[in-house]
Amino acid sequence: MASTSAPTGRRMQHRPRVLFICGSLNQTRQMHKIAQELPDWEAHYSPYYCDGLLEWFRKAGMLEFTILGWRRRKEALRYCRRAGLSVDYEGRTHAYDLTVTCSDVIVPRNARRSRLVAVQEGITDPENFWYWARRVFPFVPRWAAGTTWTGTSNAYDRFCVASQGYKDLFARRGADPDKMVVTGIPNFDDCAEYHANDFPHRDYVLVCTSDARETLKLDSRKRFLERALAIAAGRPLIFKLHPNEDWERAQREIAHMAPHARVYTTGSAEQMVANCAVLVCQYSTLAFVGLALGKEVHSHYRPEELARLLPVQNRSAAKLIAQVCRTVMDEAPAREPWQSGLATANLELSA
Fold it and tell me: What's the whole-model pTM score?
């Protein structure tokens, strides 16, 4: 197992410069929390990015349902701007000693040239058709199966994971166990904190929808709603829609089958979980929040599997990941010189 102890080897003579590759708002917040534990480092941030054929797909608007899409990029940039963070779009301006990425499903070429730490976001996709397709045909790209192949690039120096259960799972799928460190993940290492909230409702059945249809996965919304209604059995019902799904369509479907339910498109889903009596979801990290808070949870995962994968509740994941970054900086050899690329202004930055 990789060590998280303080670095003991050679020290750098200059202030380390690190690029945090963000993604969704959840991933961006996690990157920010880690950076806050490295106050003596020079930190810059970028939305998630890619190169090669994928970049062509992205520019053609074919990846809008992923964190490469413009909507998610815009959210990350807005967060950075409001938090006063330094944005280096796709790492074009500076050379970096270390990159911390929210996902290794795609690792851009320039990020492979620096020391690299990957951080698990949350729950990963189930082992779907594309997962097994890659098992049989290794030429199928890892990203085709969503987050199922998380950790298996092995392009990183260290991979910080949520729990021992996830470490075992990623190792079974091909991740190098010697590179993984169980640190917990920053947004889910203290679920009890979500009890402190001002959400006005209590003791309801909370249904958290997914973006399965938007991300081209099989999903029967009608069947999911029927199941939620059966579990609710007349109790108050609240829906929290996934931020990446078609809200108009989802609201229309809910109004047809559950006209008396409350529907929220925004707000903290974690706090809604804290106030509910029962949680119904599919493949959502919120299932972990519900489990950690002792709620009755109905999801597509078996309860014993959820318990095995539950992120450690150590309230110190960001600090532990920062320690991993310091260890990597101290012990891992430098790679090729970072190719900064063009430092020209990008129109997307002004959006």
Answer: 0.84
What does the pLDDT profile of the chain (351 residues) look like in tens digits?
Answer: 343 433 444 555 689 999 999 999 999 999 999 999 999 999 999 999 999 888 998 998 888 888 898 888 999 999 999 999 999 999 999 999 999 999 999 999 999 988 999 999 988 888 888 888 888 888 888 888 788 899 999 999 999 999 999 999 999 999 999 999 999 999 999 999 999 999 999 999 999 998 888 777 778 899 999 999 999 999 999 999 998 888 999 999 999 999 999 999 999 999 999 999 999 998 888 999 999 999 999 998 888 999 999 999 999 999 999 999 999 999 877 776 666 554 433 434 333
Nearest to 288, CA basis, from 148, 171, 190, 181: 190
Residue 95 contacts residue 340 (beta carbons within 8 Å): yes
Q: Which two tokens stand for residue 339?
A: 């190719």
User: Of the candidates 32, 9, 130, 126, which has an alpha carbon nearest to the alpha carbon of residue 87?
Assistant: 32
- Name residues whose C-beta falls within 8 Å of residue 333's C-beta, 6 or more positions apart in sequence: none
Interatomic CA distance for residues 44 and 89, integer angstroms: 9
Burial class (CB in 10 A: 0-12, 13-18, 19+), 94: middle
DSSP string, 66-93: STTSHHHHHHHHHHHHHHTPPB-GGG-S
